[in-house]
Amino acid sequence: MQPSTSSQEGQLETRSLRFFILYASLAAALCVTGGFLGMAYRNRQLIQEEMLNRGRMDFANIVLMRHWNASYGGVYVEKKPGMVSNPFLEHPDITDTTGKVYTLKNPALMTRELSEQLEKNLGYAFHITSLKPLNPANGADPEERKALLAFEQGLTERSWTEQMGDKTFYRYMGPLKTEASCLVCHAKQGYKAGDIRGGISVSFDVHELEKKLRTNLATIVALSLLTTTLLVGSLLLLFRQMVARLREARNQLVTLATTDGLTGLLNRRSILQRLEQEMERTRRHGEPLGCILLDVDFFKQVNDRFGHAAGDEVLRRVARVLKDMTRPYDAVGRFGGEEFLVILPNTDRETLRIVAERLRTGLPEQVQTGEPASPLPITASFGTTVHRAGESTDTFIARADRGMYLAKSHGRNRVEEDEA
């Protein structure tokens, strides 16, 4: 027998819910992962901004220090033993009236010497450089050269991280503009006031910071995976319970829609659908199909004498007997009131008569009502018929119905067949 429309709809609903669960879980996973990765990205972005601000601040301080030096035309310091005068300055040394020698520290030399001291003691350095340096020691490395060329195109700053040995350094570089005080040394190179003549790069160790950022990222990823797993697991559990409850509700609705509430048998609509299915099967395969329509005898008297509760119990017991005494693939339904319809696939006329007689004799043996001391056996009138080629459902049932009324007119508790 083909699956019912209700079953197909249930399978379609289950499939749709599975897709919904999959998409909902995927969306939840993407949202959680995106949120955590967004936190990691924002955290790194804030650190990058702090490093950039530090580079800007250090650059500004160095420029301010150079301006201070340049505003005095350089600073003279006492020339101690071993101190070398700036070879790129004309007449850098002077002698006072006591014979002490002083040497001039211009902005470039002061910047280089301070950088050497900071790098030696703190691992922090800054470097004044140019594409046309007077001092070869101020030549630009490859990254600084890129920055200097970019400054000539209008870029105002450049920053990057660079691996030096086993450590990572953050580097910031800003341009140096030629000022009037600079022309004393740099006019001969062709510079004019306002020209970009070089830049200062600042470098500081961020190896430990980068290490912490990687650890932080790994922690965030682990938390993201854990949270996603818990959330998706919870969603799957929730949806699984929801699917189970929906399936249970659907089954209950299907049962209510297809089952007679009093007897538990198929209701009139469902038994007629089953009959149509079996008739279609008979047309395709040519197998015989039998039908029994029975009516409980004197049922109104049972209700009037013993009450409707007793009448309901009689109907339930009749239904149980019909179900127990037929094959699993036979269909039994309550046709209406105290009438029952039994459909017997692959059953010829002779077998149908035997089954009907067995049901007729079994009813009063198993279904009784009234007082236990004087029980009233319940009987029924049976009409039987076998499907004829080309006839409709209504015609088929009508012939069974006529057989049932023949049984009633001939004294009840009988099996009759309408052969018309």
Rg over CA atoms: 51 Å
Label the overall shape: rod-shaped
- The name of the CATH architecture of the largest domain is 2-Layer Sandwich
Number of helical segments with 4 or more residues: 10
CATH class placement of the largest domain: Alpha Beta
Helix and strand composition category: alpha+beta
Distance between the termini: 30 Å
Question: What is the number of strand segments?
Answer: 14
Number of domains: 3
Helix content: 40-55%
CATH homologous superfamily name of the largest domain?
Reverse transcriptase/Diguanylate cyclase domain
Description of the molecule:
The chain has 420 residues and is of the alpha+beta class. The chain has 3 domains: 1-71 and 207-258; 106-205, Beta-Lactamase (2-Layer Sandwich), CATH 3.30.450; 268-417, 2-Layer Sandwich (Alpha-Beta Plaits), CATH 3.30.70.270. Helices cover 54% and strands 19% of the residues. The chain has helices at residues 5-71, 107-122, 142-152, 183-186, 207-258, 268-285, 299-306, 308-324, 349-366, 393-409, and strands spanning 75-78, 93-95, 101-105, 125-129, 158-164, 167-177, 196-205, 289-296, 331-336, 339-345, 368-369, 376-377, 380-386, 415-417. The strands form 4 sheets. Strands 9-10-8-13-14 form a 5-stranded mixed β-sheet, with helices on both faces. Strand 2 and strand 3 form a beta hairpin. The longest helix has 67 residues, at 5-71. The chain is rod-shaped, with a radius of gyration of 51 Å. The mean pLDDT is 86.
